[in-house]
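Lab channel / #folding
Pinned by the channel admin:
"Please post every new chain as: sequence first, then the structure tokens as a reply. Keep commentary short and put observations after the output so the thread stays searchable."

First post following the new format, from NK:
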Amino acid sequence: MINRVEKLSLLSEMISFAKSENILKPLEHSFLLAIAKQLRISREDFDYLINNPINYIHLESHSERIVQFHRLVLLMDSDGENTSKEITKLHNFGLRMGLSHESINKVLYLMESFPNKIIPPDVLIDIFKVHYN
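Reply from TO:
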């Protein structure tokens, strides 16, 4: 399991991803707050991270990086708008996490074929398993 500092880093990364044009939309805010609760991050810490990002900490666990990438995909889809800027940003976040270029591209391509552009977790895991072995 990941530690508190890693959790704060993950949440900070997601907030940074969501704050395109320095605006955090209400739907994105609600989604991020739900993730904070899931990670057992206090509301005070969450509010602090909104204006005070912390440095990225690379997760050692490949499975944790996949989970984080899935959260970012869900966050991107939360407002129903996927701009090319957001897709590029998501792709770059995935690469920075050390995920396979091919897997990221496949996820982004397959998103279009699912309702609400949300890839089920099992499909996402299968995509990354193919390129991890």
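NK: The CA atoms of residues 73 and 90 lie 7 Å apart.
TO: also worth noting, The mean pLDDT is 87.
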